Amino acid sequence: MSSYDNPEDLNTSPEGAPSKRLLAIKSDYNKVLEGNLIALEIGIKSILEKCPRFAEWIKTIIEKSE
Known about the structure:
The chain is mainly α. The protein contains 4 helices and no strands. The chain has helices spanning 18-25, 31-42, 44-50, 52-65.
């Protein structure tokens, strides 16, 4: 079980950003390439369900574009 309520809680500081943590484990981690592959694999619905701040941001963008 994770100690974080959602993935957004992992990003607590610039030094502790998820991409920096991944780079510490996998020195050739490519944030743009691998981040996109992960997003495609899990899907936008899952991301929006797990990331409430991101979901709210997307909702705001959609509302302003209507």
